[in-house]
Amino acid sequence: MSDLGSVLRKRGPLLVTALLLCALPFYLDAFWLRIGLFSMAAAIGAVGLGLLSGTAGQLSLGHAFFLAVGAYGYVWLAGEPGPGLPPAVALVLAVLLAGAAGGLFSPVAGRVKGVYLGVATLALVFLGHHVLLTADSVTGGFNGRSVPPLQLGGFAFAEADPELTVLGVPFGAEERLWYLGLVLFAVTWFSARGLLRGRPGRALVALRDSETAASVMGVHVARYRSAAFVVSSMYAGLAGVLLALSFRRVVPDYFSLALSVDYLAMIVIGGLGSVAGATAGAVFVTALPLLMTRYADQLPLVAAPGSGGGSIGPTEASRYLYGAAIVVILLYAPDGLHGLARRTRARLRRRPSVTGPPGNRPSPGATVPATTTDTTARAKEHTP
Length: 384
Fold this sequence. Notes:
This protein is mainly alpha-helical. The protein has helices spanning 2-23, 30-55, 63-78, 87-111, 115-134, 136-139, 173-197, 199-209, 211-216, 221-247, 257-270, 275-294, 314-332, 336-349, 372-381, and strands at residues 145-146, 151-152, 155-156, 165-166, 169-170, 249-250.
């Protein structure tokens, strides 16, 4: 019974969160569901970039390129012109295609690091944007292409064919895609945590901290750096597919340098090297401009889209805000939101109890001896 209680204490918050996320489509309208969808897609991509930049220590400014490979790969493989493959097969192949693109670039990633790798990946964004604009027969050029809906066993993640009603709530495209995104996010989230806790994760952390020490311990530097780039590219490809399904149309201008910068902001704000932190940063960066657009008329100095006022637009305002958030994080919480939450939790755990009989309470000037629980909390606080 005590084991069950321990499991519930450890896994209870996760179970409650999962149940809450499963119940939200029954209560939220389309706007909030779209925010959730975009946030889940962004979280998948941010977790992948976190593995590369936060854990392996490789700077990448080309994440938007691999999102574009996944999105356009799915559209071309499942649509016409294109092979017209079953959408589920096209989804898997699009993710593999993004991984293959990362594999082609991995020799560079295995030998170059720091700013030089950042500049090299930056070239991918400009090259990819040029290809998307000029390869009209595949990408649709400037106007882009519509996205074929995903179908699994005759069930379409589209508007209403066939119609579906669950507990009196009509399930349209957003509701159906919500659960698809939730499943994909859960798979990638747990796989990333498993990778970080296993030997590959320890090897990547060793590479980030000291290449010399890692190579002495038997870690193949180039091989692990290349593998991290491929895995990150596959995560980005999956995020691109989910974004394409959510937008229902892909256009080249979305996959620009600004998108890569957004993803860097996500992992910095959330916390480098943390899966939960990357998720929190993705939700913050994704939801902020959408919320500011909806409530622009209620915010000072922010103009609603198309109003023609002299104030700044919601998108620009949101970029200023999370730019300021990055500065504050770097100055006061370098390990991001996840590190801040972890330290706060540790402080609350080791706070001495003042309940109980008056004779057992510590006097105002007395020193409270550290307990085993306190020592464990301090050790956890400094554990990456």
